[in-house]
Amino acid sequence: MSVYKNVTCPVCGGSCDDIEVLYDGKTIKTRNACRMGNAKFQEMVSSHRILRPQIKTESGFRSAEWDEALDAAAEILTESKRPTLFMGSEMSTEAMAAGLELGEYLNAMVDSNATICHGPTLMGIQEAGQSAATAGEIKNRADVIIYWGTNVMDSMPRHMSRYSIFMRGFFRERGKKD
Fold first, then answer.
1. Molecular function terms in GO for this entry (predicted)?
2. How far apart are CA 73 and CA 58, in angstroms?
3. Residue 106: which pLDDT band, with cuts at 50, 70 and 90?
4. What percent of the chain lies above the pLDDT cut of 90?
5. How far is residue 124's CA from residue 132's CA, in Å, rounded to a whole number?
6. Most buried by CB count within 10 Å: which residue of 7, 67, 125, 161?
7. Are 28 and 41 in contact (CB under 8 A)?
């Protein structure tokens, strides 16, 4: 069984980097991952995961060899007049960099879900300003945290254990006892 330590979770903005992934070639087990993080890692071994390239036909999709699929993709891209690359948020920094490089090479428009998710927030911040702190500042300094207008257990399940109730920080060495 392979054990990978200090893996960064790709799901929410909590960026939990203390995940352990245990892989035996067929199954994955996680330690320190929340339900959302564990579900994302389970996708790696899901029976629903597409493992071979697919080419669209009139009757649906068919499996193809990599060379054939890459040739078909290259043909689609070279014939495109206005390619757009839409990148998801649950990907590694390396995958994002590769996507941006491909977009630049194709002279494509590149967008992500940040436009519709965080974009309006950023526009509001640019217009009105924002009072903010980093998660590290909160962890190290806050003695009371109020969750206002958010369901942190739904959106970032480990936030409370890493940054509020059970955390330990520079000025909070004994956690909530300080």
1. NADH dehydrogenase activity
2. 17
3. very high
4. 46
5. 14
6. 7
7. yes
Task: Report pLDDT digits (tens) over 33-57.
Answer: 999 999 999 999 999 889 899 999 9
DSSP 83-135: -EEEE-SSS-HHHHHHHHHHHHHHT-EEEETHHHHTHHHHHHHHHH------H
> H or E element: which one contains 147?
none
Cβ neighbors of 63 (< 8 A, separation 6 or more) are: 52, 53, 54
Q: What pairing do the DSSP bridges indicate for beta strands 54-57 and 28-31?
A: unpaired
Rounded Cα gap, residues 41 and 59, in angstroms:
32
pLDDT band of 176, cuts 50, 70, 90: low
Contact (CB, 8 A) for 34 and 155 = no
Amino acid at 56: K
> Whole-number mean pLDDT of the chain?
87
Helix (H, G, I), strand (E, B) or coil at 12: coil
Q: What is the mean pLDDT of residues 99-112?
A: 92
